Amino acid sequence: MPNEVVRLICPNLQCKSILSVPASARGKAVRCRQCGTKVHIPMGNKTPAAPAEVKEPAA
Ligand SMILES: [Zn+2]
To answer: How far apart are the CA of 9 and the centre of ligand 1, in A?
Structure first.
């Protein structure tokens, strides 16, 4: 998904703007356009770690 976008809310309680950043910005920090607060983009925000389903091949 090349155009994946990560949405997060500005941590500034007086701002709370919704920031849309490209998924490629994960692990980096961006600045909120409204207030200039630095917002850290967490890794893998949209993909919750699901336990891998292991299936044993039928013998
Ligand atoms: Zn902000």
So the answer is: 8
